[in-house]
């Protein structure tokens, strides 16, 4: 008996018009659009997702963008560029499958990720970048992020941050955060922590309290706006076969969607820089 092949698909999307990745009743989501397109092509039946061992890598929030979201499915159909292009025809112009690869039968896009890289772009409002970088150094490495995550997050809130890079270019601040995995809400609260630290509203003492999971009712951290947040990359040991046509069509569409808004134009530049690195542009 032959094993049914398993595939990983790399998704790129602009999250502005969606209520996040995960399906929700009566809500427009990325996952809903992806599964509908796969079903229209006869690859899956949405009512039987368990039999395909369907998984996704990250649950992005409403309005959060992604250059490198990944899903995996075990399906009897052969996946190739022709099939992917067909699926893309059923997807909205702001969502595209841009890469695919066959993976081992036990591959999990969530648990087999080597690291996740988030990029955040926001307006510069006079923040002290030196202070932001000092706070960033403090939270690098392994910590319990219970107080810097959603109250609805995982029971185990210990995570390890691999890198944080903070830069300013003209009117914008760019923050890159890299880690193997993140608790729910953790990324957006880290961003608030750094930006408020840059405004001198959060000190090193505040941060030491926040990193102590035993202490409750510490300084409250709001979620940073999702509008400038991008799931920039998820690194795996497998190599994806990329589809230039899908990338070009996606970028051509969002170029007009994002024009005229300075912040969103920076999002477009981030998308372009990623695909230039992959030598697709």
Overview of this structure, please?
The structure is a single chain. The protein is α+β, with helices and mostly antiparallel strands and 281 residues long. The chain has 2 domains: 149 residues, Alpha-Beta Plaits (2-Layer Sandwich); 110 residues, Alpha-Beta Plaits, CATH 3.30.70. Strands 1, 2, 3, 4, 5, 6, 7, 8, 9 and 10 form a 10-stranded mixed beta sheet that branches. The longest helix has 16 residues.
Task: Briefly characterize the structure.
By secondary structure, the protein is α+β, with helices and mostly antiparallel strands. The chain is 29% helix and 25% strand.
Task: Detail the topology: elements first, then pairings.
Elements lengths: L5 E8 L16 H11 L14 E2 L8 E10 L6 H9 L5 E9 L11 E9 L5 H11 L1 E4 L13 E12 L2 E8 L6 H13 L5 H7 L18 E7 L5 E2 L1 H15 L3 H16 L4
Parallel strand pairs: 3-9
Antiparallel strand pairs: 1-3, 1-4, 2-3, 4-10, 5-8, 5-9, 6-7, 7-8
Helix pairs in contact: 3-4, 6-7
Key traits:
about 280 residues, alpha+beta, Alpha-Beta Plaits, 2 domains, 10-stranded mixed beta sheet, 7 helices, about 30% helix, globular
Average per-residue pLDDT, rounded, comes to 93
CATH topology of the largest domain: Alpha-Beta Plaits
CATH class of the largest domain: Alpha Beta
Order of helices and strands: EHEEHEEHEEEHHEEHH
Largest sheet: 10 strands, mixed
Structure classification: alpha+beta
- Rg computed from alpha carbons, rounded to a whole number of angstroms: 19 Å
Report helical residue fraction.
25-40%
Overall shape: it is globular
Low-confidence stretches are none
Q: Which architecture name of the largest domain does CATH use?
A: 2-Layer Sandwich
């Amino acid at each position: 008996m032959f094993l049914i092949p398993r595939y990983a698909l790399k998704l790129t999307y602009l999250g502005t018009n969606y209520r996040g990745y995960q399906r929700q009743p009566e809500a427009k989501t990325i996952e809903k659009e992806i599964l509908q397109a796969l079903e229209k092509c006869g690859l899956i039946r949405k009512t039987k997702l368990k039999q395909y061992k369907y998984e996704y890598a990250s649950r992005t929030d409403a309005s959060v963008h992604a250059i490198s979201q990944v899903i995996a499915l075990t399906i009897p159909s052969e996946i190739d560029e022709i099939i992917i292009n067909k699926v893309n025809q059923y997807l909205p112009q702001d969502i595209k499958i841009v890469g695919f690869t066959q993976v081992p039968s036990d591959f999990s896009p969530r648990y087999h990720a080597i690291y996740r890289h988030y990029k955040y772009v926001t307006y510069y409002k006079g923040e002290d970048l030196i202070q932001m970088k000092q706070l960033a150094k403090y939270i690098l490495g392994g910590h319990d992020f219970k107080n810097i995550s959603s109250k609805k997050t995982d029971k185990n809130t210990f995570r390890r941050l691999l890198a944080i890079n903070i830069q300013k270019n003209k009117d914008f601040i760019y923050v890159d955060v890299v880690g193997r995995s993140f608790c729910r809400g953790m990324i957006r609260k880290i961003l608030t922590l750094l930006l408020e630290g840059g405004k001198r509203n959060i000190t090193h003492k505040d941060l030491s309290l926040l990193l102590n999971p035993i202490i409750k009712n510490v300084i409250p951290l709001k979620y940073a706006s999702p509008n400038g947040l991008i799931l920039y990359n998820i690194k795996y040991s497998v190599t994806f076969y990329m589809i230039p046509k899908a990338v070009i069509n996606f970028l051509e569409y969002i170029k007009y969607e994002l024009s005229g808004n300075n912040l969103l134009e920076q999002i477009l530049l981030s998308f372009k820089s990623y695909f230039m690195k992959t030598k697709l542009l």
